[in-house]
Amino acid sequence: MAKRTSKPAPEPEPMKLFYIFYNRERWENWLRRLEEASFEPEGSAEEMPEGLRVLYSFGMDITLAVLKVVKLYQNTRFSKEEALARIQQVEEIVLTAPPEGDLREIVESVQLSMLVLFASAKKFFEGDFRKEIKVLVKEGKKVIEEDSDKALAIAAEIGANVINGASCCGKYIKDDIDEPSLFDEWLIECETMGEALASLKNFDEEPGET
User: Fold this and answer.
1) 15 is a domain residue
2) Helix, strand, coil % over all residues of the chain, rounded to 5
3) Cβ–Cβ < 8 Å for 7, 197
4) Is residue 73 part of a domain?
5) 3-58, pLDDT tens digit by residue?
6) In contact, 193 and 162? CB cutoff 8 Å
7) Based on the structure, what is the number of domains in the chain?
8) pTM: predicted TM-score of the whole model, two decimal places
């Protein structure tokens, strides 16, 4: 009798991540917090109004959500296609039509800043970006008034460098600017991305964590 050959053990299925990166409910919750927050000065003159604190946390939450996807790609938990799809989902929520009323202008300003976050992540995955940050900053500041699309593409290269580990962009942001340009706002977001990445240094979501 021929000896029965044992079947190979089936390959284990990939462990799924249950962490919810970003969803519409989360976005709506932040909008409610913004609506309820006061932007009037409180306490000492140096103390930041509640509304501005919430606004900063609102933007940081979006930034962290996107960069967690990037980190999980770097940790081989996501393929490039899966990571880009996740980021696209966040982008569709964040760039949805802003609410009417008092929040409209505030939310629009956040959406404009976040353009560079999404563009930077995509540029990072493409892998084709220049490394000379000083040159890129100079180019971006020069073209922002005439060609915002080109300026965004340049800012995305800077952001891709930040995701890749480069340090930027505090020295290129002047604190005394009364009316920062949109490119300045994008540099500020790139700086925020660097701060967020530092906080995610050891991030690697385990299956089942929420």
Assistant:
1) no
2) 60, 0, 40
3) no
4) yes
5) 434 444 443 444 444 456 789 999 999 999 999 999 888 776 667 889 999 999 99
6) yes
7) 1
8) 0.86
